[in-house]
Amino acid sequence: MTTDLLSPHSPAATSTGELAELDPYLNQVLARITVADATNIGYPRAIDIDYAALAPFLRFMLNNPGEPHGPDPIYPLHTMDVERRVLTWFANLFGAERGWTGYLASGSTEGTLHSLRLARAKLIDPLVFYSRAAHYSVLKAARILGLPAIAVDAAPHGEMDYADLRVKAARTSSRAAIVVATIGTTMTEAIDSVPAIHGSLDDAGVARRWIHADAALGGAPAALTGRTDFHLTRGGADSIVTSGHKWWGTPITTAPTLTVHQPTGDSRPISYIGNADTTIAGSRSGLAAVVLAHALTRHSLAGQRRRVEQARAVAGYACRRLTAIGWPYWRNPDAVTVMLRPLPEPLTKKWPLPVDGGWSHVICMPGITTDHIDHLVTDLQGGS
Ligand SMILES: Cc1ncc(COP(=O)(O)O)c(C=O)c1O
């Protein structure tokens, strides 16, 4: 094994010793990713937004350490102003009128960890209830925080079993409960009902509670097309996270994470950064705020809604094509995810789709077209 990162066949260096072109090895990686991109319809990321205009920002090490709601960090190459605008857009999308706080986490895993940490500080000695269809990050966050976690059953289509939540919550009703509602489960895109969760906790006699909406996948499309029951409003959720790299396909992972509660617990002012340490990460990507702002400003709200409708239409088209060839499938209402029986083994390299419990799926994110579906269906018919 060589310890040199650069290939021995690297192109000539400039007078300053810099390579004039991209290193051949990185070029190979770029070629591999480009090929993979053409048939990635199993893992969610939009591909309809061009981020190339942001190249000038790559000259700078953009860093947003600490609390985005000021004071701004001493480090001058921050984009906290952009971050605040982006967060305000999401606060509006999720119905948080005022008094909200939050930041751009590195992904929904960090956003859930942060939210559960805030919930733990507020509730004192709570239990976490999570659906068996929840993302694996939820149990991980509970374990990191030392919180006992109780699994709640899920229906076959992926939605939480609210009766099971009621029974399990009633066993510990004197303790506070953190319930994680998934707004678009990873595999089937089922949406848990936050009002039904509140109803189960009411019936179980649980008074002290925090509902965290893990809206990594489905929060944006649901909210953009009028679903409000998981919003940061009374009777809704207490905190929410959604992944910008999914619905907008940002080239850097980023997850707006919001709560309507003021952070409690350890959030000390730090003189070195000139700011308060309220976030899980220390250094945070300032470029993430820029790429997400770019995505949000590419379309008006009507345009953002149109992206949802187009993606759902492609999912509907996929269902019709699968019906036509007799390939078993199903789809949750309004989902861009279409569940289908796993592909024959020879096709799985070209079409790397996840498989769980005997089902696979395609996700028709914005930018995935009927051509992608036709291509897959042709391969399925050929069986190769
Ligand atoms: C429902 C759900 N929650 C959380 C995550 C984790 O998100 P991230 O990869 O941004 O940490 C995912 C990712 O697939 C997800 O689908």
Automatic annotation (TrEMBL):
Record keywords: Decarboxylase, Lyase, Pyridoxal phosphate
UniProt entry tagged with the keyword Ribosomal protein: no
Domain of life, source organism: Bacteria
Cofactor: pyridoxal 5'-phosphate
Keyword Lyase in record: yes
Example of a GO biological process term: carboxylic acid metabolic process
Record-listed N6-(pyridoxal phosphate)lysine modification sites: 246
GO molecular function: aromatic-L-amino-acid decarboxylase activity; pyridoxal phosphate binding
Record-annotated membrane-spanning stretches: none
UniProt record similarity statement: Belongs to the group II decarboxylase family.
Name the record gives this protein: Histidine decarboxylase
Organism: Paractinoplanes toevensis
Upper lineage: Bacteria, Bacillati, Actinomycetota, Actinomycetes, Micromonosporales
